[in-house]
Amino acid sequence: MERLADAQARLRAELDPALPALPALPAPADPAVMARLPEGTAVHCGVYRAVYDADAMQSLWQPRLVWEATPLLGDTGEAGMDAVLDGLRRWLDTEVPAEESRDQDTAVELYWPSRDVDVAPALFRHGFVPLSTLAVRTGTPAPAAARDGVSVRRATLSDLNELVALQAEELSYSLRVVGGTMRANATELITTSLRRSVYFSGRVLLAESGGLAVGVADCGIARTAPGTMIERRLPSGQWGYVGTLSVLRSARGTGVGGALVDAAHEMLDAEAERGTFLFYDLANPLSTVFWPRKGYRPLWTKWVCKPAARLR
Ligand SMILES: CC(C)(COP(=O)(O)OP(=O)(O)OC[C@H]1O[C@@H](n2cnc3c(N)ncnc32)[C@H](O)[C@@H]1OP(=O)(O)O)[C@@H](O)C(=O)NCCC(=O)NCCS
Description:
Number of helices: 8
Radius of gyration: 20 Å
Oligomer: single chain
Helix content: 25-40%
CATH class of the largest domain: Alpha Beta
Strand content: 25-35%
CATH superfamily of the largest domain: Gcn5-related N-acetyltransferase (GNAT)
CATH architecture of the largest domain: 3-Layer(aba) Sandwich
Structural class: alpha+beta
Distance between the termini: 26 Å
CATH topology of the largest domain: Aminopeptidase
Number of domains: 2
Order of helices and strands: HEEEHHEHEEHHEEEHEHE
Bound molecules: coenzyme A
Number of strands: 11
């Protein structure tokens, strides 16, 4: 297995210098899936069962039950991914009750380096689609647009109602983009999360124009600590992230988002030694234009097969 991990790490280093320079995926002691290519090479896949209950903020955009797959392919590319996904299909059939994997609120997900397009045909064949990307800022932002009358400041708890309304608007837009369903308790979860962010982190930025709240950027600081979702996905250290960026529909395209991101970068760069990262959906016609102009580019692509029983 070490040979596979080494080969995978070497291939990744060649593909994308922004990926962490350590074995991207540790060899699992007891992988759920073991498969062989026709010529005999063994490949593996770990599977983690993640549950997003009604009180979890992630349940707003994640299915309730997700099997997170971590393939270990070495340098076997498309053929290796094919073999692993065949094995994963068999594993689901034998280990998971059919009524559970058929539930519409389930998925199988995996993160794969965005630049490794060689494996993409195998993922498509097995029912996966590329949904979103973990992007890092490696470029220089395009010159800022004029933004007369827009001011940005740190939000306080007295702004909570406006913040919640803005973030709910972003959620409703993003759920349409990814084909998700609005949870009945969305407002409650957003309110709790924003209250915590404003109170404990203090890194929520509010944009105002003409005395009205027109945009929000909910930011934070993250470490590549064990168990975090950026562990082994980003070079180790402290990172800044832009969690949610939302601009009131009627104010979009007038420089509000740009002003918020400039202020967010100024705030985060002062604390985050490694840089900044964020997620955006690949079918979002606004953010896919916006973020590359702000210096971000895809590092990892999240592939999703939903519901899980659609894996073939
Ligand atoms: C994405 C979003 C935050 C951008 O905010 P915005 O206020 O509309 O963006 P701005 O007006 O500041 O534009 C910033 C830059 O992107 C460009 N831009 C914005 N929208 C664009 C579009 N649809 N097409 C081309 N360029 C666009 C602008 O020209 C500007 O570039 P410049 O500063 O170099 O001139 C906003 O459209 C939005 O809230 N969308 C819905 C929710 C969403 O998608 N959130 C992001 C989730 S990751």
